[in-house]
Design a protein that fits this description.
Length: 235
């Protein structure tokens, strides 16, 4: 039976090997490698503190061995499973595709709003890419719809049947969506959402395409809720 300490060291060594290839240096210690790579690597940024603690545990295991077969510091199973999970996330991270692959309901500016509202009712969706011909205009969100609805309070709601999606898009805040390539990791997507928060902005949705370009077919869509749910399930 493989000991916890052996499983821990195996996972630790795999992570260290990957980190060295990232910086192309073999003379740096593990902690230094983590501090350097976590500045630009989303997965390592997420688990930076865990990895630094693992470095201390690794030293305790390696330097306190009584002999080759016996380690004084034997890690708890939960710690072993955690480092093995992180090792898999670093070497084989979850990608946004196919994780967030789904049918994306797309509308033209000229489409009647009633057709979009029908999808909201029947599919329980709230974010829709809007196009003018082949040109991407933006993503209409529930907030944009709410702003439009509030503006209609002094108007005749009978005109709803004549309202187009484009008329509602006027009330949608600009630049609240983006595109991401299908080979991006879930952590890269998470970073995209977080990157604008400090600037007082937000991203309502990331649209997945082959290379992250607006003129490509849509393969899926990612919302902030998707990222929150994914992070919660990975704990």
């Amino acid at each position: 039976m493989v000991k916890n300490s052996d499983r821990f060291i195996i996972a630790f060594n795999k992570i260290e090997k990957v980190l060295k290839t990232m910086v192309d240096k073999n003379d740096l210690g593990f902690s230094r490698l983590v501090k350097i790579t976590s500045k630009y690597h989303p997965v390592l940024k997420r688990y930076r503190d865990d990895l630094l603690e693992f470095a201390q545990l690794r030293n305790a295991i390696v330097h306190n061995r009584v002999d080759f077969d016996y380690a004084i510091a034997e890690p708890h199973l939960s710690v072993v499973e955690q480092i093995e999970w992180i090792e898999r996330e670093i070497t084989k991270p979850q990608l946004v595709y196919p994780m967030f692959k789904r049918k994306v309901y797309v509308f033209q500016e000229s489409d009647p709003l009633s057709s979009l509202l029908y999808i909201i009712k029947t599919k329980d969706l709230s974010k829709f890419p809007i196009y003018q011909g082949n040109q991407f205009i933006g993503v209409l969100s529930e907030k944009g719809l709410a702003h439009w609805l509030a503006n209609q309070m002094s108007h005749d709601f009978k005109s709803l049947s004549y309202t187009t999606v484009g008329e509602v898009m006027v009330f949608q805040e600009p630049h609240t969506s983006g595109f991401i390539k299908k080979t991006a990791t879930v952590y890269e997507a998470e970073d995209r959402f977080k990157s604008v928060i400090g600037k007082g902005k937000r991203i309502d949705a990331l649209l997945i395409t082959e290379n992250g370009h607006a003129n490509e077919s849509l393969l899926g869509i990612i919302t902030p809720r998707d990222i929150i749910d994914t992070a919660a399930n990975s704990q």
